[in-house]
From TrEMBL:
Pfam families: Ldh_2. It is an enzyme of class 1 (oxidoreductase). The keyword NAD does not apply. Belongs to the LDH2/MDH2 oxidoreductase family. Its EC number is 1.1.1.-. Keywords: Oxidoreductase. The keyword Oxidoreductase applies. GO terms for molecular function: oxidoreductase activity. This is Putative oxidoreductase YjmC. It comes from the Bacteria. InterPro entries: Mal/L-sulf/L-lact_DH-like_ah (IPR043144), Mal/L-sulf/L-lact_DH-like_NADP (IPR043143), Mal/L-sulfo/L-lacto_DH-like_sf (IPR036111), Malate/L-lactate_DH-like (IPR003767). It comes from Achromobacter deleyi.
Length: 359
């Protein structure tokens, strides 16, 4: 399919990223979110998640999110002084009321609540409500894995996908993630949304003046498109067709319906109504792997699991078989040593919020 008029397929030149040490980026991020009204510890929780996203190379879900989070904090759509409450309806169950706080802050409270429940019962689950976009799932999965917990984590989202066979957006691009720890080795980390790509990638293509593959989204009439503007006005395509549609519904049932948060079309769009609470929901299901066997037992089995995959002869000699999470963990190790790549406009916005000069 040819590119639409006014959209070029030639790669756009972007300014070279700045490279900043992790400690300096964390400090800058914390000061920026404090300037937006968050208490110091709350700002640190938010930055923990977003910096891990940048370390993984997930720049669309890292500190670049200060643009959308910051705008909503400034217009009162997100509560900067959220009083998050955790209740315990059963020994292994936690309910988290996020008080319309910044999503990663609510996420970190829910993760800690689920970890505490799992440490007591072997298995723990936390359901969060009254939240907002909480970043990518893999940072939470890594934090849990480093502490010895296997996890299944999900969130619902603004509706951007049509029901299978439908012609309007009634389903969220709800992400789900899985993580299994490998003590002293490479953790298994899988983080995926229900669409072929995230809307952030389409927005980036629009900013760069680039076409998109026609497998990413449809226009408002449900027709495949390479025009990012038409795609943003239309619907994302789910992974695996009707199977991805069903999985998206399952995530929303757990994250939205069971958590007593909004679900499906009850979720407000942060783009269309930035000054109104979204009432997003999340769930964190954790298993204390130490109840299953020793760390040596788990490490041996996880290493054997990865080796079985790695030993498969690759179809392309330049692309060996990997297990999910290896690329992100390699980027994390490299950027922790050499510094984190940050887009100049993101760094400028962080400095502006933090009250720093742009030099």
């Amino acid at each position: 399919m040819a590119a639409p008029t006014g959209v070029t397929t030639a790669p756009a030149r972007s300014p070279a990223p700045a490279v900043i040490a992790e400690a300096d980026l964390r400090d800058l991020g914390v000061r920026a979110f404090q300037a937006l009204g968050l208490p110091p510890q709350d700002a640190a929780d938010v930055v923990d998640v977003l910096v891990l996203a940048d370390l993984f190379g997930l720049s669309t879900h890292g500190l670049s999110r200060i643009e959308s989070y910051g705008e909503r904090l400034q217009v009162g759509g997100i509560n900067a002084q959220a009083h998050i409450q955790v209740t315990r309806p059963a020994p292994a169950l936690r309910m988290v009321d996020g008080d319309n706080g910044v999503g990663p802050l609510v996420g970190m409270h829910a993760l800690r609540a689920a970890m505490q429940a799992a440490s007591e019962c072997g298995v723990g689950i936390a359901f969060a409500r009254q939240s907002n976009h909480f970043g990518p799932i893999s940072p939470y999965g890594l934090i849990a894995a480093e502490a010895g917990y296997a996890s299944i984590i999900g969130s619902n989202a603004t509706t951007t996908i049509a029901p299978w066979g439908g012609t309007d957006a009634r389903v969220g691009n709800s992400p789900i993630g899985f993580a299994v720890p490998n003590p002293g080795g490479q953790h298994f980390l899988l983080d995926m949304a229900m669409s072929v790509v995230a809307r952030a990638k389409i927005r980036n293509a629009l900013k760069a003046g680039q076409a998109i593959p026609d497998t990413w989204a449809t226009d408002a009439q449900g027709q495949a498109t390479t025009d990012p503007k038409a795609a943003l006005d239309g619907f994302l395509l789910p992974i695996g067709g009707h199977k991805g549609y069903g999985l998206a519904l399952m995530v929303d049932l757990f994250a939205g319906l069971l958590s007593n948060a909004a679900y499906l079309t009850h979720v407000k769009s942060w783009v269309d109504a930035p000054d109104e609470p979204q009432n997003l929901g999340h769930f964190f299901l954790l298993i204390d792997t130490r109840r299953l066997g020793s760390t040596q037992w788990l490490a041996e089995r996880m290493n054997d699991f990865a080796a079985i995959l790695h030993d498969s002869p690759p179809a392309d000699a330049q692309r060996p078989v990997i297990q999910p999470g290896e690329i992100e963990l390699a980027k994390l190790a490299r950027q922790r040593q050499h510094g984190i790549d940050i887009a100049p406009d993101v760094l400028a916005l962080l400095r502006r919020h933090a009250g720093q000069p742009h030099g």
